[in-house]
Amino acid sequence: MTYPLPIIAEAMLNGLLTGAVYALVALGLTLVYGVLHIINFAHGALLTSAMFAVWAIHAFLGVDPYLAILPLTPLFFALGYGLQRYVIGPASHGDDGNILLVTLGLAIIIENGLLALFRSDTRSLATDYSFQVVELGPLLLSQARLYGFAGALAVTILLWLLLARTDIGKAIRAVAKEKLGAALVGIDVRHVYAVTFGIGCATLAIAACLLMPTFYVNPRVGGAFVLVAFTIVVLGGMGSIPGALAGGLVIGVVESLCGLFLGESLGQIGIFIIFILVLLFRPTGLFGARA
Amino acid sequence: MNTRFDRRTLLKGGAVALTGIAAPSIVRGQAPATIKIGILQPVTGALAMDGEFGRTGAELAIADVNAAGGIKSLGGAKLEMVFGDARSNPEAGVQEVERMQGEGVVAIVGGFASPICLAASQAASRYDLPYLVDVGVSDQIISRGLKNTFRFAPGFGICTKSAIENLVRINEAAGKATKTVALVHEDGLFGSGLAKLMATELPKHGFEIVETIAIPTPSRDLSNVVLRLRSLNPDLVIPSTYYGETVLLARTMQQQRVRPKAVYSVLNGAASNMRFVKEFPEAADKIMDCNHWHDPRNPKNAELQKRVEAAGKIWNYNTPLNYSSVRLLADAIERAGAADRAKIIAALGSSTFAEHLMPYGPTRFENGQNMGAAPVSTQVQDGQIKVVFPEAFADAKPVFPVRG
Fold first, then answer.
1. Which of A1, A15, B164, B294 has its CA 20 to 30 A from that of A260?
2. Which domain holds residue B162?
3. Nearest residue to A13 (alpha-carbon basis) of A131, A132, A139
């Protein structure tokens, strides 16, 4: 099947825009993996609850989804901090295998809690700019998705600066590299773990705010993103921030082009082929060596 | 007539009055026993929205039958609803049928989704319990030879046939304004089957299928589908998708300025749903659908709609369909003259019920399917869903093509 060049170009751009938000979702996952060395199975459910939070404060209080970033980011940071400090950490008893199960259990509790609270209806919110476009020559680019792209890039850079330049960033990196050593020089490892988990949740809150103007939410929606996010984390290198961004963009473009050429039903096939190829030939991922 | 009370009458009367004081419920018991009918709807889970529409219709019908004096052939016996929540899955539907059987219902109405209807009617058939399907369109429902199962609404076969016939007629009336067609369908049984049928039938009527696009449910993003539509520029887009995807497709088309001459959907999850029209009036405008809808020329619908909306609920086709189905059952019980399952099944089978709210002729069941039933073609016009075809039931003229 052949398409005119502008259409292929537009599909690639669409893919880049979507990919940036994928990257943002993957960012929290990769950070938590890099520092706590656990795979957070509750990531998808937490994203879903953030999306419901955005929906709810728009529906009941009329708060614009982009403005919702201001209250929701600290709120989800606190939620993540509390979860790690008082639920996941204590329940794991120092065994990584337990953490896996605790996060899986949390995911089930959160999803069913949302189901009970909001029922399984699919909800979306309408804003004036949801379906506005920016004309770029022959291309029509969704305004909300451009904002999403810009937001995701900004968050990635901020997070990178936080890790590279601040004291807590240094502490996080120290704990990631050598937990025992970090504890010996006086770093409160439990606090750093909780902060990291909190940051992971905060990025999800931002991702939810950037997603909601164009996307919908139901209690199972997080699963669709988190599977892609796992692939991005593997592709970019477990624990690598730039890897998550690059991986997200690549995956977005691959998905978009596969959807265009193979049909939407097979759009995700490219993602999983990449997943298998990376595991076969470069198991550390694109930026894995640095993690 | 003897107007004097003798001792015996006085005693009898006194006894009855005393019992009445002691147990007020028995006073009502003096009237004929109530007749329990089962109403099965998915009011929780993925189909909750539709289940509520259906329950509203059934409740109103039961209230109206009772207000009009109940079942007269049974001495004015009142109908009593035994409600079951099918929880949007067939297993729960079967559990609720078992429970209703235990509570002694004489018939069950509802089900909504095909899988629930299939399982629930089969469970009911084990008890020779009459089952009246409200919406479930799968033709498997009535082709299994179950004596207890009836469907008042049209099935898949009738719907697709009417959809194609209506489209051909509307197009011819507009001087064959559209020729090229793109089919967008969900990749499950419903969408794929429909697309296949369209792809073989439409070319016989001078249409040309330029593309068939399958999309998964749920879809995150339909930008690429709309890009393909933009490059193909078909006259007509025919989506057969569920609610979420139809809304996403319509909104993305609006955004990407893809404006075909018409959008004509078939049994669509959104195009004849007032929620879509209310939430996204611009994206929904002028979209057509071939689906169940009430008869807008029947004044009883406007009356019922007022009552539904006064209760703060949304009106959808499920409401008059369930209302009519319960009335159809009440009519059958009336004619059966007994709360007896076999007699009710026989009475349903010979029904000619015509006082319903749907754009159908008199009821005539053939192997459980109402042969008088047919869908109508609707169009979203000025924030309302209007019937535009067939003309006998239309309350507006089709705007076709929407753009030249």
1. B164
2. 157-291+377-393
3. A139
Contact in structure between A106 and A45 (CB atoms under 8 Å): yes
Tell me which residue range forms the domain holding A109: 5-290
Report the pLDDT value the prediction gives residue B100, as an integer from 0 to 100. 97
**Which one-letter amino acid corresponds to residue B232?**
L
Question: Measured between CB atoms, does B213 come within 8 Å of chain A?
Answer: yes
- Residue B342 inside a domain? The answer is yes
**pLDDT tens by residue, A16-56:** 999 999 999 999 999 999 898 888 999 999 999 999 999 99
What total number of domains does chain A contain?
A: 1
Instruction: Examine the domain organization and report whether B213 and B262 are in the same domain.
Output: yes
Contact assessment for residue B369 and residue B280, using Cβ atoms and an 8 Å cutoff: no
Q: Is residue A265 less than 8 Å (CB to CB) from chain B?
A: yes
- ipTM metric: 0.72
CA angle B138, B144, B150 (to 5 degrees): 70
pLDDT of residue B315 exceeding 80: yes
B302 and B316 inside one domain: yes
Neighbours of A59 (CB within 10 A): 11
**Amino acid, res. B42:** P
Nearest to B392 by CA among B166, B161, B156: B166
In this complex, the residue of B215, B231, B243 whose CB is nearest that of residue A7 is B231
The tokens for A116 are: 């009970």
Phi, psi of A196 (to 5 degrees): -60, -45
- Compute the residue count for chain B: 404
How far is the CA of A126 from the CAs of B44, B97, B221, B251, B258, in angstroms? 25, 40, 16, 11, 20
**For the segment A109-163, what is each residue's pLDDT rounded down to a tens digit?**
999 999 888 877 778 887 778 778 888 877 888 888 899 999 999 999 999 999 9
Residue with tokens 């199972």: A220
**E-only strand ranges, B217-337:** 236-240, 262-266, 288-291
How close B256 gets to chain A, by Cα (Å)?
A: 6
Nearest to B45 among A18, A120, A260 (CB): A120
| pLDDT tens-digit readout, B337-352 | 999 999 999 999 999 9
Q: What is the C-alpha separation between A222 and A193, in angstroms, rounded? A: 23
Pull the structure tokens for residue A133: 């476009």
The reply to whether B168 and B64 lie within a common domain is no
